[in-house]
Amino acid sequence: MNDPRSFVIVGAGQAARWLALTLRGDGFTGRIVLLGDEAHPPYDRPPLSKAVLKGDVPLAQLALIADGKFAELQLDWRPGQQVEVIDRAARRVHTSAGEVIGYDALFLANGGRARQLPGRVPHLRIATLRTFEDALAIKRQILDARHVLVIGGGWIGLEVAASARMLDRRVTVVEAAARLCIRTVPACVSEHLRELHTARGVVLQLGNGVQTVDTSERDVSVVLASGERITADFLVVGIGLVANDAIAAAAGLATGNGVLTDACGRTDDPAIFAVGDVANAMRADGQRMRIESWENAQRQAVAAAKAALGAAHDPDAEGPPWFWSDQYDDNLQLLGVPSEAMQVIERRVEAKRQRVFFFCASGRVRAVAAVNAGRDIKIARKWMLQDRYPDIGALADAGVDLNKLPLAAASP
Questions:
Q1: Residue 317 pLDDT more than 80?
Q2: Which of 151, 183, 263, 350 is the most buried (most CB within 10 A)?
Q3: 348-385 pLDDT, tens per residue?
Q4: According to the 3-state scheme, what is the secondary structure of 301-353?
């Protein structure tokens, strides 16, 4: 190592992994300190609500950085440490272990924490899902339960519900909003999710929020806004993620539902970057968004690492954001940011259990939601990157190969 600079990464997930890989891949030879509040090296979180709950998946199988790769990347790995104070003037962080670590560049990749039910204290029969230990504990509870109650009809809640049903447990999902995943998808996708879960036997309580929660040694029960009481053996709370932006706010950085950054992760301090779930980034289209996805964490981390090294990189040039969710035997992928204002064109291939929603405006495909149709997502991404599109009227014909449709440049 001949570079005297020290870069500190706070967090040990997908974003941290790509920060380290990109910094080293782009020639940084200084010190990289990796701080993680868990005892484990970086691991993949998406399988926690799916493969880990349904099967026997060891932590090693989820590793994002293999043991040998740690040595290759020459990472100064500090497990089980949280950053408690950022001293911007001295460019130092103070950790929960009492260490003081200097930095030339600081990367906040410390994600978020599961939102808790207001006013509730921890209880054996109530759980949230964020860590590998959480997933193992929830799996044990599901296997011991007959009836699993899930509060929250977003992605995590629905993935947990699907996993519990595949383990043949009775499942009820309570969602205060009128439809599922209301914050991220239009009504047509919500309706598909409703049909999917009801067909599998999940009882959905939509537009019916929780008023009270009662627990005992044997069970947990909730009273809904309608007055109905539901009693179950176990309750999983999946009501969203709270960004871990408190240390940034305490240090005087601009925050608001996450740490405010530009598209490349730059905060209002030139030595500090924020990426992944903790970052509320400004996109090229002028929208500020905090996107909780595996792909977004990678994209922002690569951009921030390059920016810290002085290289130009536009993450928005890689195309619209992408997200996926596995529920039962279905894979749902979401490309772009759909809205109710867009024209919806549906394409179905019943024999393959494929369903694709194209969200269009001004002759362009702006977003896509695809069920069991990953190839269609790839094709649509290519259209968006080229800003060349087929006649959107042809999209509904499932007998036509999307790859063979003639493309034309979109009108200004």
A1: no
A2: 151
A3: 988 889 999 999 999 999 999 999 999 999 999 999 99
A4: HHHHHHHHCCCCCCHHHHCCCEEEEEECCEEEEEEECCCCCCEEEEEEEHHHC
Query: Token pair of 65, please?
Result: 């950085």
Backbone φ/ψ region at 353: left (φ over 0), alpha (ψ -120 to 50), beta: left
Burial class (CB in 10 A: 0-12, 13-18, 19+), 401: exposed
Phi then psi for residue 246, to 5 deg, are -65, -40
pLDDT tens profile 85-135 = 999 999 999 999 999 999 999 999 999 999 998 877 678 899 999 999 999
Q: What is the model's pTM?
A: 0.93
User: Which of 107, 97, 99, 83 is CA-nearest to residue 6?
Assistant: 107
What three-state secondary structure class fits 126? strand
Please tell me the distance from the alpha carbon of residue 10 to that of residue 383, in angstroms, as a whole number.
36
Instruction: Count Cα atoms within 13 angstroms, Cβ side, for 386.
Output: 12
Closest CA to 101 of 83, 119, 115: 83
pLDDT at residue 121, as a whole number: 65
What are the backbone angles phi and psi of residue 94, rounded to the nearest 5°? -110, 130
CB 259 within 8 A of CB 289: no
Contact 390, 407 (CB under 8 A): yes
* Strand order through the sheet with 75-79: 75-79, 31-36, 6-10, 105-108, 272-274
- Of the candidates 2, 75, 82, the residue with the CA atom closest to the CA atom of residue 36: 82
Q: What is the pLDDT of residues 295-308, one digit of tens each?
A: 999 999 999 999 99
338's tokens: 């759909």
Among the residue ranges 92-96, 245-249, 396-400, the one predicted with the least confidence is: 396-400
374's enclosing H/E stretch is helix 374-386
The dihedral of CA 155, 157, 163, 166: what is its sign? negative
Nearest alpha carbon to residue 88 among 65, 105, 71: 105
